[in-house]
Structures are given as structure tokens and as C-alpha cells.
Design goal:
- It is a single chain.
- The chain has a single domain, classed as Glycosyltransferase.
- Helices cover 56% and strands 8% of the residues.
- The protein contains 12 helices and 14 strands.
- Strands 3-4-5 form a 3-stranded antiparallel beta sheet. Strands 10-11-12 form a 3-stranded antiparallel beta sheet.
- Helix 1 (3-28) runs antiparallel to helix 12 and helix 3 packs across helix 4.
């Protein structure tokens, strides 16, 4: 791959991270009156300090600014991470029953107290990264404790897999949905994907045999249950007995899974599994090209049974596609993947980055019109997807450029 193209891409990404994404969150999001971060910021940057606060947003901010500090060692990034960490430990952590609350009011009092396993996974991911950033021992202890709680309460020991949600006291609940648009099914790909992500991060620093076994197990759940080996798309919703309860395609989740699964197998260190997941990553990335539209943006979903597509381009699938395609390039050496990653970045610059108010828009429709009624910051709109994509791509480009220099040196 042309080194100048990759170098220019890296420069673009670093500028986007340091001059747009991170400053937006540092400037507008902190709730200096009530603590933590504001629960809602509109498309036009109206900050609602009385909006409820979500654990996922706070955990994602914690992860992003911890990761940014590890890259740049800017004290302002660590200060932002510390604000998130202190609010999670002081308000979201359930001191009586364990785990974390899903939702608080703006003053920090619990509103939704059930245990959403997705949220526990993100908190593990964030706490582990914060420990990396500053060595806070209690952060790592919290991550290990949450891992134990997931394994104790959410693992289905009879049929395998993890239950989507439980009550505050870890009892079964009727409605386990992560959001109102999700199917009410007890085993979902999305929650398993972020358990995979969290366990991968934790296993890097906590080489516990029980965690190794759990990570190995969830990798195999993806290779054996969630990935359709005929279509190379993900199966998204299951009941307790692993009966498939959905048939639609989520292009963003497909490509995000491709590189997270590959990464997990590498961290686990099982050579055979690593090679298998590398092949899967390349295959899933190639099939994912079908979701690219006339502007080289990745559409949201496709419903084969209805021959219908949701052609909106949401912010997060673009970020994940950039990383997933470049990972496939690194795995295969096929430059088409690198060119597709660059193409996604060009689309992001054209359509997703908000040149007026900052950050990225929630989505644009097929005509390129942004969804101005959706938030810039909220329960789901956080700096994690786009911030992580910038940092991942910078690191991966550095690796590719270094490998290219080494190869050229050997030739001479």
C-alpha cells in the first residue's frame, strides 16, 4: 500500500481525534453542577443538565479518555477519564447487590437498577483501560469483580451463553431488552460481542485461568453459534435454547465483530483459533462490501425476508468499517481492503463530521441529509466508536508503515 496515502490518512485521523472528537467531549459534556457528564446534548449542542445519565455513556467516556491518555500523556485527558471513573464508582456502582445501575437521574440517584450484562461488560472494558492509564488498583479490582459477577449470575451453565439482563438482585426478568428497538430475547449477539471485547481487554492484564476459559468459550460461541458460515453474517437474537429468533443483517455489527473476534483470538494465544478467526475476519470483511452504497457509506441494516434495506448511514458502522477493513488488509495483504478503509474515511469527512457544531452526526439518509433530531451525546452516542477508530487506525497504520520499511530494508 502506498506509504504516502497511509501517512496522509493517519494525519487526518489524528487531527480529527485531537481537534474535533476529544475537545467536544471535554468542553461540552462535563456536568459541573451535578457531577459526571450531561445525559443529553442535542444535535445543535444544547446541553440538558436534567437528563438522566447512562452507565454506557460514562463507561465509554472513561475508556476513550483513558486510551487517549495512553497515546498522548495529556493530563487533561486523564482528568476527563478520572471524572468518569469517580462518577461510576460513586454513583453507578451498586454497593449492596453488586454490578452497576443502568440509569440514574441527573442528581445521581438510581432510576433503572436492573443488571444489564452489556453495561457490566462495558464497565469492565473501561475500568481495565483506566488501570492501564494511571495504575489505579481499585479500577482493576472492579473489573475483576464484575467479571466474577457475570460468570456467577449471567452464564447459562446448562446451555451456554450469557443471559441478557437480570434484576437488581440477579433474578430473572421478563423484559431483557437493551433498547426499545431490540427483540426481547434472552441471548443476543450484541451483548456477547461486548463481553468478548471486555474479557479480551481484561485478559491482557489479568491472566487468570478462569478468565482464559471464559474468553476461549465466548470466542467459540461466535465461531460456532453467532457467525453464519454460509452467509458470513451474524445471527443476532436467540432464545434460551439457541433457537434463532431474527433474520436481518446488521452491517455495522458484522464488521465490528470481524476485528474484535480476531483480536480476542490473538490475545488468547491459541494458534489454531487465531488462524481460524483471522480467516473469518477477512471473509466477513469482504462480504461486508455488499453494505456499501453509492457514496461508499455503510448502510445500517438489510431484511432478506422483506427484500428491504434501512439505507441510513449511522455514525458508528462507518467507524467500525474503517477498522474492520484495515484489519482485513493487515491479515490478507489485499490492498482492496485498505482502499475500502480509505473510502470509508472519505465518506466520513463528507457526510458524518459536523463542521458546524462539532463531533459526528447520528446518521444521514440516502440523500445525505443529517438526522438533526438525534443527539450528539446521550445513552448511546458517545466518543467510543469514532474515538477508538481514530486511535486503532493510527496504531495500525504505524504498524503497516514500519513493516513496509522493514521489507524495503531487507530488499536492499
Amino acid at each position: 500500500m502506498d506509504a504516502k496515502k497511509l501517512g496522509a490518512l493517519r494525519t487526518d485521523l489524528e487531527r480529527e481525534l485531537k481537534e474535533n472528537i476529544l475537545p467536544f467531549w471535554m468542553t461540552l459534556a462535563p456536568d459541573k453542577e451535578h457531577g459526571g457528564f450531561a445525559g443529553y446534548i442535542s444535535h445543535q449542542n444544547h446541553v440538558d443538565l436534567k437528563a438522566n445519565k447512562g452507565i454506557v455513556m460514562h463507561a465509554r467516556i472513561l475508556w476513550t479518555f483513558s486510551a487517549a491518555y495512553l497515546v498522548y500523556h495529556d493530563p487533561a485527558y486523564l482528568e476527563t477519564a478520572a471524572r468518569a471513573y469517580e462518577y461510576i464508582t460513586g454513583h453507578f456502582t451498586d454497593r449492596e447487590s453488586g454490578g452497576v445501575y443502568w440509569e440514574l437521574n441527573y442528581r445521581g440517584a438510581p432510576v433503572t437498577m436492573r443488571k444489564q450484562v452489556y453495561a457490566l461488560a462495558f464497565t469492565i472494558y473501561a475500568m481495565t483501560e483506566y488501570w492501564h492509564a494511571c495504575g489505579e488498583k481499585e479500577a482493576l479490582a472492579s473489573a475483576v469483580r464484575l467479571f466474577g459477577e457475570i460468570e456467577e449470575h449471567a452464564l447459562d451453565r446448562e446451555r451456554n451463553g450469557y443471559i441478557e439482563a437480570l434484576s437488581r438482585e440477579w433474578e430473572p426478568v421478563e423484559d431483557v431488552r437493551l433498547s426499545v428497538k431490540d427483540a426481547n430475547e434472552r441471548k443476543t449477539m450484541n451483548t456477547h460481542l461486548h463481553i468478548l471485547e471486555a474479557y479480551t481487554s481484561l485478559f491482557r492484564v489479568h491472566r487468570d485461568p478462569r478468565l482464559r476459559e471464559a474468553l476461549d468459550n465466548i470466542i467459540r460461541l461466535f465461531t460456532e453459534r453467532f457467525i453464519d458460515r454460509e452467509t458470513w453474517h451474524l445471527r443476532l437474537f436467540f432464545d434460551d435454547d439457541w433457537n434463532l429468533r431474527s433474520d436481518f443483517i446488521s452491517f455495522g455489527h458484522d464488521i465490528e465483530c470481524s476485528w474484535l473476534l480476531d483480536e480476542a483470538a490473538g490475545v488468547l494465544g491459541n494458534r489454531e483459533l487465531e488462524e481460524e478467526c483471522g480467516r473469518i475476519a477477512v471473509q466477513m470483511a469482504r462480504v461486508n462490501f455488499r453494505g456499501l452504497d453509492h457514496e461508499h457509506g455503510l448502510i445500517y441494516e438489510f431484511f432478506p425476508g422483506e427484500n428491504r434495506a434501512d439505507t441510513d448511514r449511522h455514525w458508528w458502522p462507518q467507524a467500525e468499517a474503517m477498522v474492520g477493513y484495515f484489519n482485513a488488509y493487515q491479515r490478507s495483504g489485499d490492498e482492496e481492503f485498505a482502499l475500502k478503509a480509505i473510502g470509508i474515511w472519505e465518506f466520513i469527512k463528507k457526510r458524518m463530521i459536523d463542521r458546524t457544531y462539532g463531533e459526528w452526526v447520528w446518521s444521514v439518509n440516502r440523500e445525505g441529509i443529517p438526522a438533526t433530531g438525534n443527539e450528539k451525546a446521550g445513552f448511546w452516542k458517545c466518543p467510543y466508536h469514532n474515538g477508538r477508530a481514530c486511535m486503532e487506525m493510527m496504531r495500525r497504520i504505524d504498524e503497516s508503515l514500519a513493516a513496509g520499511k522493514k521489507k524495503n530494508h531487507l530488499k536492499t
